């Protein structure tokens, strides 16, 4: 198979810069002090992206995909007597519920249609009724649709009711400004290959230190023990318990430097927002309508409805792939959709080229 470079218009893995790719040309030893210092630098930079009070928060890196890290967090943060409320308006909220089910963690689901955001007042009503709930989990950007949930309002209710707040910010952290302290988020989960624009290989949790310290011996898994991973990194200067994805970590460090060079999270959010707005405008001109209301769109990814019952996504996908673009199939349960991402090393010129390719090829579907 030819090694062809595609523009990945997906929610991650995504298109990375040449310099991030070049960072993976070097080999690192997991026990080496220079490598462990790199890990420590990554951890510090992550905390500074999320909070101003760096002493009260910490970061822990975890091998595997984003879901591995979500499972590590859910399986470690909740103790044997705790109960979870999962706020779900898409596939990734439902995945948290599935994790809780498999781990035998008592849980309930606050279920919302995929086209609607979570509602703080409804959450409060549930928490007032269900006194046994100790933790609340919600997805910030629901990648099923691209919908952005009002996490600040959701977390405010959870904390007012004395709950621990867990946020899956997999598709938003680094691409949308998040203030963990002000939003009262206790645990925030994301991944290397999303808005920070690294490559796949690990996820991470940014945690309120006082809450993470309570999680010792909670874990329901050896390899996904978030507390033990953090404790090892703290005591041994950035060392991982088991073999770490060294090349991905170095690439991630380079990606963090490039995020700073771009002007930080706000500058990146503005670029992503311009991409998304331009994409929607041009797609609507071509007859492709977004699945959710514009008010709820994130700048991360957009779900589009099939333009007709005769539309073939497979043909559409292959047509774009031949021209160098890779998009994503839909994940909405109730409607036929496909998704186009706006994140990664993607710019307005790329959106224009994509929609020009669609305009040329859409009539042959």
Secondary-structure topology with pairs:
Elements: E1 7-8, H1 18-22, H2 33-50, E2 57-63, H3 66-77, E3 84-88, H4 91-102, E4 107-111, H5 120-129, E5 135-139, E6 141-142, E7 147-148, H6 151-160, E8 164-168, H7 180-183, E9 187-191, E10 202-208, H8 209-212, H9 226-235, H10 246-262, H11 265-285, E11 301-305, H12 313-322, E12 325-326, E13 328-329, E14 337-341, H13 348-361
Parallel strand pairs: 1-12, 3-4, 3-5, 5-8, 8-9
Antiparallel strand pairs: 2-10, 6-7, 9-10, 11-14, 13-14
Order of helices and strands: EHHEHEHEHEEEHEHEEHHHHEHEEEH
Strand order of the largest sheet: 2-10-9-8-5-3-4
Alpha-carbon distance between the two ends: 26 Å
Shape: globular
> How many beta strands in the DSSP annotation?
14
What percent of the residues sit in helical stretches (DSSP H or I)? 40-55%
Rg, Å, rounded: 20 Å
β-strand amount: 15-25%
Number of helices: 13
Provide the low-confidence segments as ranges: none
Largest β-sheet summary: 7 strands, mixed
Round the mean pLDDT to the nearest integer and report it. 95
């Amino acid at each position: 198979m030819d090694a062809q470079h595609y523009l990945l218009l997906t929610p991650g893995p995504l298109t990375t810069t040449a310099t991030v790719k070049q960072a993976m040309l070097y080999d690192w030893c997991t026990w080496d002090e220079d490598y462990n210092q790199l890990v420590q630098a990554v951890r510090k930079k992550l905390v500074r992206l999320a909070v101003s009070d760096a002493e009260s928060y910490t970061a822990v890196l975890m091998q595997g995909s984003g879901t591995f890290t979500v499972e590590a967090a859910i399986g470690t943060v909740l103790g044997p007597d705790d109960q979870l409320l999962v706020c779900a308006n898409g596939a990734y909220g439902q995945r948290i519920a599935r994790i809780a089910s498999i781990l035998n963690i008592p849980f309930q689901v606050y279920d919302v249609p995929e086209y609607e955001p979570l509602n703080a007042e409804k959450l409060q009503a549930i928490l007032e009724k269900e006194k046994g709930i100790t933790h609340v989990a919600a997805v910030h950007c629901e990648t099923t649709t691209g919908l952005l949930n009002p996490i600040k309002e959701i977390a405010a209710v959870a904390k007012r009711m004395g709950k621990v707040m867990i946020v899956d910010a997999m598709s938003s952290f680094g691409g949308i400004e998040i203030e963990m302290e002000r939003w009262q988020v206790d645990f925030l989960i994301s991944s290397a290959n999303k808005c920070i624009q690294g490559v796949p290989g690990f996820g991470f949790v940014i945690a309120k230190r006082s809450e993470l310290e309570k999680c010792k011996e909670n874990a329901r898994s050896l390899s996904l023990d978030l507390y033990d991973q953090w404790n090892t990194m703290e005591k041994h200067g950035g060392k991982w318990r088991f073999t770490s994805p060294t090349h991905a970590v170095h690439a991630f460090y380079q990606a963090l430097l490039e995020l700073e060079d771009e002007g930080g999270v706000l500058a990146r959010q503005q670029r992503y927002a311009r991409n998304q707005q331009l994409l929607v405008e041009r797609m609507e001109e071509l007859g492709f309508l977004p699945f959710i209301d514009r008010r709820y769109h994130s700048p991360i990814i957009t779900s589009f409805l099939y333009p007709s019952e005769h539309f073939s996504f497979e043909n559409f996908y292959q047509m774009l792939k031949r021209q160098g673009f890779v998009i994503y199939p839909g994940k909405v349960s109730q409607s036929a959709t496909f998704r186009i991402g706006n994140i990664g090393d993607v710019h307005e010129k790329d959106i224009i080229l994509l929609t020009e390719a669609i305009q040329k090829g859409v009539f042959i579907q």
